[in-house]
Amino acid sequence: MAIDWNQLHGHAFAGVKVLVTGGAGFIGSHLCEALGKLDAKVLAFDDLSGGYESNLTGMAGVELVKGSILDQALLAKSIAGCKFVLHQGALGSVPRSVAEPRLFHDVNVTGTLNVLEAARAAGVARLTFAASSSAYGDSETLPKIETMPTQAKSPYAANKIADEAMMTAYAASYGLDTASLRYFNIFGPRQSANNAYAAVIAAFAKALLAGQRPVIYGDGEQSRDFTYVDNVVHANLLALKSTRPIGGAAINIACGRRITVTQLANRMAELVGHPELEPIYKPERAGDVKHSLADLSRAETLLGYDPITNFDEGLAKTMAWYREQPR
């Protein structure tokens, strides 16, 4: 069943101009769609290196601006007049960041600085940032609490931690209120399976729907707090409309439940009607963490956040979407 964003968020965004970096990407397009339904004026800013114009097809109130967050002039022009910015634009993938650390730094750190500077100059009221649970590294402490020390195990994680520090600094120095929402293993429709670094659920879906066994890197006992994309959208909207300053706080966004990767593979094989497609195990990859589980106390206290779609419902919706896609 589709989420009724009007019921959850009322008229908070009607007529408000909002810029979403990475707006044609997986998470960004869901944010654009929800904001469009809430009658916001949405600019989806994307260089289409990881997003698709088709992700925005048919969305009312959403305009695509093709450009890179490394283009300072275009950013400044696009952010002018915006009340809010949702900064989702980044290069993803831990293993790809290990292979291409300088590129990741340029886009994910320098690009984020560009977004902050453009937002500051334009007088934006609040900016939310797509932070990452990778900030916790492989600490054995569960659940992950925002007061724990950060521990970068990959260039990607280091990028995200550096960006969090900038969010706090800009909130303290310039009065640009910011929030670093630490996403935990987001999945859902529009998540691309068509590259070598595809997220695990997308990669498993692609294999299983082709009648192939999914590949697990490691022993499969690694666990994740898989979070359906509607929960991320809800958290961002709550953060934007918060009546009190957030001040750059890091806030976990997840479901508060963990599932092993082997359990995930088996569940997905059952959903496609081929439980005999058992996973193939390969050596674990550099930078991957063993376990991930979020404490959601801060999200509840600061934002009033509570997950609106659980893992099982989200996985069923996601697999239904992948089934409808051309092979």
Structural notes for this entry:
This protein has a domain at 13-187 and 227-255 and 297-308: 3-Layer(aba) Sandwich (Rossmann fold), CATH 3.40.50. The protein is 39% helix and 16% strand. The chain has helices at residues 5-9, 26-37, 72-79, 94-99, 101-122, 155-174, 200-209, 229-240, 261-271, 297-303, 311-324, and strands at residues 17-21, 41-46, 62-66, 84-87, 126-132, 177-183, 186-187, 215-217, 223-224, 227-228, 250-253, 259-260, 280-282. The strands form 4 sheets. Strands 3-2-1-4-5-6-11 form a 7-stranded parallel β-sheet, with helices on both faces. Strands 7-10 form a two-stranded parallel ribbon. The chain has a two-stranded parallel sheet with strand order 8-13. β5, α6 and β6 form a beta-alpha-beta unit. α2 crosses α8, α3 packs parallel to α5 (101-122) and α7 packs parallel to α9. The radius of gyration is 19 Å and the shape is globular. The two termini are 25 Å apart.
